[in-house]
């Protein structure tokens, strides 16, 4: 299992952290840490072997000077999948 560290800024912390946690769950990453606002601490976790990937809520939250493995958690959509009706639904309703 891959270990991940989540890096988020202090603004919108809860929403961004939740999105990154959902992403880690989907990817089946084990969360090794959640770092708020200290990019160097997140990079140290990768350098020390505690995590293999840094998960961020957007590309603007990364430091371009460093190049660890970084993944962006996609935004959640509020759209619901439309329910499909069977092809013969109108015939079944007429019976």
Describe the structure.
The protein has helices at 13-27, 39-47, 89-94; strands at residues 3-8, 30-36, 53-56, 70-72. A 4-stranded parallel sheet has the order 2-1-3-4, with helices on both faces. The protein is globular and about 30 Å long. With 95 residues, it is α/β, with parallel strands linked by helices. The protein has one domain. Strand 1 (3-8), helix 1 (13-27) and strand 2 (30-36) form a beta-alpha-beta unit. Residues 64-95 are annotated as: Disordered. Residues 76-95 have a biased composition (Basic residues).
Oligomer state equals single chain
Average pLDDT over all residues:
80
Radius of gyration: 20 Å
SSE string, helix = H, strand = E?
EHEHEEH
Our count of domains comes out at: 1
Unreliable residue runs: none
SS-based structural class?
Answer: alpha/beta
What composes the largest sheet? 4 strands, parallel
**What is the total tally of β strands?**
4
Shape: globular
Number of discrete helical segments: 3
Measured between the Cα atoms of the first and last residue, the distance is 54 Å
How are the strands of the largest sheet arranged? 2-1-3-4
Region (Disordered): 64-95
Biased composition (Basic residues): 76-95
